[in-house]
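Reopening this one. Same input as before:
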Amino acid sequence: MTGGRRPLSVASTIPPCPQLQRRYYEVDTTPATPPPPSRVRSAIKFGAFGLLFAGLGFVAAASPLFTGLWDVTRRRSDEDSLNGYIPQHDEAKAVDEFIKTHPLSTELRKSPAMSESRPHMRLPEILRRHNLTGGTLLGPGRITVPPFCWTEESGKSLVSISHLGTDMCGHPGIVHGGLLATILDEGLARCCFGALPHNVGVTAKLEIDYKRPVHAGTYVVLRARTLKVEGRKAWVEGQLETLATEGEEPVLLAQATALFVSPRFASVIAKLNAAS
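Same output, byte for byte:
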């Protein structure tokens, strides 16, 4: 060295290399907290589940209603009505078989002018259970089986056979006169239905002349014929008599005359009664 100058250190004159510098950063290792769910999204989710379960509940609850509506709107033929009743009790089975095979039934069944049916069995079940003669009064001890009925076309005449049980009495052992009036009212009305608009009418007048007491447990025959039809009105006469066995003559029990009118809302009644 010369001039008394201190030698320079190479290391001290070279600036530090940025690539060689160490830098330290703090890294947060705590798991990230998810953002709170949206209230709108939660409401939509719960609403969807609510609608789903409400819909399932409605379907389960309404299924009998759908079945009932289908039953009401389904039209039943005479053949359907004949096949629609199956007796469940021994008394009903015996009565049903007796009427089916009776000579009068066989004779009426052969007539081409008469149509056989069981009118009450044409009613939908949902309506029949609330019907007086087709539901409330039908069964062993009462009107034992649904009556058999033969009607002539165009509402000209009618014959029906019923069995009146032991639980329909007014005086002991005697069938209540009110039941006989009901049977006459329904039978005479059904006789003229075919001659009235929409095949239905309501009772305007009914007169009954009781001839003899009807003993409980009796088979009865209703015979009716339409006398006159004018527009919405029909006049009918009929009678109740015993179902005679071979070699016997029928006994006259009651006679009746009636006036029936087809109401202006007859089309609605006809639909509810399934054109019975």
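So the earlier flakiness isn't reproducible anymore. For the record, The radius of gyration is 43 Å.
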